From TrEMBL:
Key word Hydrolase present: yes
Family, similarity comment: Belongs to the DDAH family.
Protein name: Dimethylargininase
Domain of life: Eukaryota
GO molecular function, one term: hydrolase activity
Organism lineage: Eukaryota, Metazoa, Chordata, Craniata, Vertebrata
Keywords: Hydrolase
């Protein structure tokens, strides 16, 4: 990929296959909030379609974007492990291994750690439940990097302590959070990021005026 300032030059993409266990009833019950957008049970998953879409994604990354693809095999014991963006936030040469909200998902990072080491990234761990990052939860899909700052959606899946760990890890970047009762809190505020200086803020009933006017800075600049 061409060198696009200020993101840098991308050379690799890490993906993980969709396991046959994805979309099973027990999986839906556990993750209904993320899949269904509102909680209260799961949604039907077309596994074959999901796997075809995954194939289209990997093909586009290789052929159209020109990236070297690192594909971690699917694990039937980890139905949600294909959401690999949830278990690490990477910027520059630093990778923060996160702690997803669901206890069952936290082992998903094990296969990724070896890849991060092979890429010679500096790996920062959120750590155990006790200690400096005790009680923190963070999922990478709640994080948006604009090239200058991080936006973090704080909700039941990513809490304020997790956002603070992100701020402590990437101290050269501003960390801006928005809070919501929804699980997809980030998208309550930022519908899409257009460029470094412009984001679209949707007019929706669940977006409070105070949220759009004041985004909490978690770290002094």
């Amino acid at each position: 990929m061409a060198n696009i300032h200020p993101y840098g030059r991308f050379t690799h993409a890490v993906v993980r296959g969709i396991p046959e266990s994805f979309g099973k009833p027990s999986d839906n019950a556990q993750n209904g909030e993320r899949n269904g957008g509102g909680g209260g049970g799961g949604v039907e998953v077309d596994l074959a379609k999901a796997q075809r879409q995954f194939g289209c994604l990997t093909g586009a990354l290789r052929q159209k974007v020109g990236l070297q693809l690192i594909e971690i095999p699917p694990d039937p014991e980890l139905p949600e492990s294909w959401r690999i963006e949830d278990v690490a936030v990477i910027q520059g040469d630093t990778a923060l291994v996160t702690r997803p909200y669901h206890q069952q998902r936290r082992s998903e990072a094990e296969a990724l750690r070896g890849v991060l080491s092979e890429l010679r990234l500096s790996v920062v761990e959120m750590g155990e439940e006790q200690g400096g990052s005790g009680g923190a939860t963070l999922e990478g899909s709640d994080v948006l990097f604009t090239g200058r700052e991080f936006f973090v959606g704080v909700s039941s899946h990513t809490n304020r302590r997790g956002a603070q760990v992100l701020a402590d890890t990437f101290r050269s970047n501003d960390i801006i959070s928005s809070e919501s009762t929804r699980t997809d809190a980030l998208w309550d505020i930022l519908d899409s990021h257009i460029n470094m200086d412009l984001c679209c803020v949707p007019e929706r009933q669940f977006v409070h005026q105070s949220q759009t006017k004041t985004l909490l800075q978690l770290r002094d600049t």
